[in-house]
Design a protein that fits this description.
Elements (H helix, E strand, L loop, with lengths): L6 H14 L4 H8 L7 H9 L8 H13 L6 H12 L5 H5 L5 E4 L15 E5 L2 E12 L6 E8 L2 E8 L5 E5 L5 E15 L4 H33 L1 E2 L2 E2 L4 H25 L7 H27 L9 H13 L5 H11 L1
Parallel strand pairs: 1-4
Antiparallel strand pairs: 2-3, 3-7, 4-5, 5-7, 6-7, 8-9
Helix pairs in contact: 1-4, 4-7, 5-7, 7-8, 7-9, 7-10, 8-9, 9-10, 9-11
């Protein structure tokens, strides 16, 4: 398969690389200490160079993969791309696109692991508008969000609503990649219905971007490990000269190429019957192999591989988080198999 980028896509990649840098660990830690876990100045800068305004699926795949290679700390996926797939031309879309508003999507509910449809969050319509009552959990980016997009059950079925931050009293906590998520309970909170949101399409597209970022992260893990085994010496020679180490790295390289092929096959696929399940299958396939590459990278780095002092630890933790976004590999493969 030809992985060559167009001139515009190469420009996107170069722009992202200049913005995100090389995954400096100290800068990541400083950014994570910002209110809500998001550096608003860098978020505005990211929006200013257009990374939130691009909506072409292929171009966004390039952006997501490059953010993964850079081990970027900004939650482009969960607070930018995903909300904008739901908002489209709604009132708040322009504010999210220009970086003045950070949005988060609240779909997970307590006790309903990997269920994507709402059940406990209920929407009621009154003369003055809609209100929401119920609980949400694992809202990625929820500590920094100004706007929450909340799935809820109505008499006519599930729907999406926007809720301003002032109406939400959230509990914040750290997740594995160092970001902050939120849990909250609403009691007759005022909300506005987002009428043109297509939930299944947004989830499928976001799964693709999560897979793209995962490919970038795995690529960074492989490159860092390859450099390390060429330098680390044992018994008078670089450990990369040991055949056992070479075999393990060849396996990782093969997996990485399989992941990249699967990613672009999914990205270039037509939106036909079974397209949503195919995105789930691609993400599951990619995440399983990325986790394996992460384990190998950590083991080959030795004891320091598990510390936060090396970028590989941060990259692997991000992979673990993305592998659970919308469902773990087993549940997403089950979704794919059911459709097949």
């Amino acid at each position: 398969m030809n992985f060559s980028l167009s001139e515009d896509q190469a420009l996107f990649r170069a722009t992202v690389e200049r913005f995100a840098g090389t995954g400096d660990v100290d800068k990541r830690k400083i950014s994570r200490r910002s209110p809500g876990g998001v550096d608003r100045q860098r978020w505005a800068k990211m929006a200013g160079i257009g990374l939130l305004a691009i909506d072409d699926r292929i171009d966004c795949t390039v952006i997501a993969e490059t953010l993964g290679i850079s081990v970027a700390v900004e939650p482009w996926l969960e607070c930018g791309y995903f909300p904008l797939q739901l908002l489209h031309d709604e009132l708040h879309a322009a504010d999210v696109t220009d970086g003045s508003v950070v949005a988060a999507v609240a779909f997970a509910e307590p006790g309903r692991r990997y269920a994507l449809e709402p059940h406990n969050m209920r929407a009621s319509q009154h003369d003055s508008g809609w209100t929401l009552s119920g609980a949400k959990t694992f809202v990625l980016g929820g500590a920094a969000a100004d706007l929450f997009l909340v799935t809820a059950e109505t008499e006519a079925g599930s729907a999406l609503f926007s809720v301003e931050r002032e109406h939400i009293d959230a509990r914040h906590y750290a997740v594995i990649d160092g970001g902050l998520a939120a849990d909250f309970t609403l009691r007759q909170a005022p909300a506005s219905m987002i009428s043109n949101a297509v939930w299944s399409d947004a989830v499928a597209d976001t799964r693709l971007m999560a897979a793209a970022e995962t490919v970038g992260l795995a690529s960074r893990l492989f490159d860092e490990t390859l450099d390390y085994v060429r330098q680390r010496e044992q018994f008078g020679q670089a450990i990369g000269r040991f055949q056992a180490v070479q075999h393990r790295l060849v396996d990782c390289y093969t997996m990485l190429e399989q992941m990249r092929s699967s990613l672009w096959r999914a990205a270039l696929a037509d939106r036909s019957t079974g397209w949503h399940a195919n995105m789930a299958g691609a993400k599951a396939f990619i995440c399983e192999r990325a986790i394996h590459i992460g384990h190998e990278a950590i083991q080959l780095h030795g004891g320091m591989g598990v510390t936060d002092e090396l970028v590989i630890g941060h990259a692997h933790k991000r992979i673990l988080l993305l592998s659970k976004f919308f469902g773990d590999p087993a549940s997403e493969l089950a979704c794919f198999a059911e459709a097949a």
